[in-house]
Amino acid sequence: MTGINDWIDREVKGNDVVLFMKGTPQMPMCGFSGQVVFMLEKLGVTYKGHNVLSSEELRQGIKEYTNWPTIPQLYVKGEFVGGCDIVREMFQSGELQTLMTDKGVPVAVS
Predict the structure, then answer these.
(1) CA–CA dist 5, 7 (Å, integer)
(2) Domains of the chain, CATH where assigned
(3) Per-residue burial over 15-51, b = 16 or more CB atoms within 10 Å of its CB, e = otherwise
(4) Per-residue pLDDT tens digits for 2-11
(5) The whole model's pTM is what?
(6) Phi, then psi, of 23 in degrees rounded to 5
(7) First to last CA, the chain
(8) pLDDT tens across 40-58, in order?
């Protein structure tokens, strides 16, 4: 499975913000993915979404890549931030916006 691992690694490191999710940003296919999309859009962050339902290899590969069992998974500037619960807590406390700003990711909300 090194092929998918290399691809995931390039996506994570080659984009400022990447969300591996069920469905697409335009049409999330689970509530947790939808919540993370909502939070990123509320902050006005530009991000790249990948639908793990499009490929079983990707769905398994992303779990192995981070050793994190659940989807969605958010990455900022090559670093794994967390899943829905962690992202929600960070969003509610203002930490998510601070993380984006500290990493040089433009946010539209102050």
Answers:
(1) 5
(2) 2-102 (3.40.30.10)
(3) bbbbbbbbbbbeebeeebbbbbbebbeebebebebbb
(4) 799 999 999 9
(5) 0.95
(6) 95, -160
(7) 41
(8) 999 999 999 999 999 999 9
